[in-house]
Write a structure and sequence with these properties.
single chain, alpha/beta, five-stranded parallel beta sheet, 9 helices, globular, binds adenosine monophosphate
Length: 191
């Protein structure tokens, strides 16, 4: 089973993906995590995307599609969870093509619906908690960057809601419910 978790930054996609990894032996494919890893290891690509990421913009389709293509070559275990990908219509088309090439299907697109002000608070808190625990704070976890990331989401990613709705793949859930309730909603969709 291959699924997409769709929703704005801070909606809880990563949290839910981690639960699916534990509970269903699925593989989480987070392009955000892959890009952060590329920065940490100082690859040329990592250096290239750093400024765009810190400002809250989207890196090029070509780069993220390349990252996903590589991962689809590996073990699929209980299936892939696409987290933070696709974020644009060309990425969505590319994902469809890549899955088709592998003889795989997309089984569900789960839209996590949340409210902006709650998201801004969540992300600012995530930064505060990380700082208090002596952990590194994501450069894009601040209010200005978050508002920019939200606008990028509405302009470039939200059109995917209509795209997957038209394909009959979309289910929307309340992403602001307590974590366990959100997990239960996802379990119900996945069966
Ligand atoms: P995330 O951890 O998913 O919030 O991603 C952090 C940042 O990585 C985003 O703000 C973008 O700069 C970049 N990024 C992650 N995934 C993508 C994607 N699919 N397309 C373009 N940029 C992405």
């Amino acid at each position: 089973m291959n699924i997409i978790l769709l929703g704005p930054p801070g909606a809880g996609k990563g949290t839910q993906a981690a639960k699916l990894v534990d509970g269903r032996d699925m593989i989480q494919l987070s392009t955000g995590d892959m890009l952060r890893a590329a920065r940490t290891s100082g690859t040329e690509m990592g250096q290239k995307v750093a400024a765009v990421m810190d400002a809250g913009g989207l890196v090029t389709d070509e780069i993220v599609i390349g990252l996903i293509r590589e991962k689809l070559e590996g073990d699929k275990k209980g299936g892939f969870i696409f987290d933070g990908f696709p974020r644009t219509l060309p990425q969505a088309d590319a994902l469809g093509d890549l899955l088709a090439e592998k003889g795989e299907t997309l089984d569900a697109v789960i839209e996590m619906q949340v409210d902006d002000e709650t998201l801004v608070k969540r992300v600012v808190n995530r930064a505060k908690e990380a700082a208090a625990a002596g952990q590194p704070v994501r450069a894009d976890d601040n209010e200005d960057s978050m508002r920019f990331r939200l606008m990028e989401y509405y302009k470039k990613t939200a059109p995917l809601i209509g795209y997957y709705y038209a394909k009959g793949d979309l289910t929307s859930i309340d992403g602001l419910a307590p974590i366990d309730e959100v997990s239960a909603s996802i379990d119900k969709i996945l069966g």
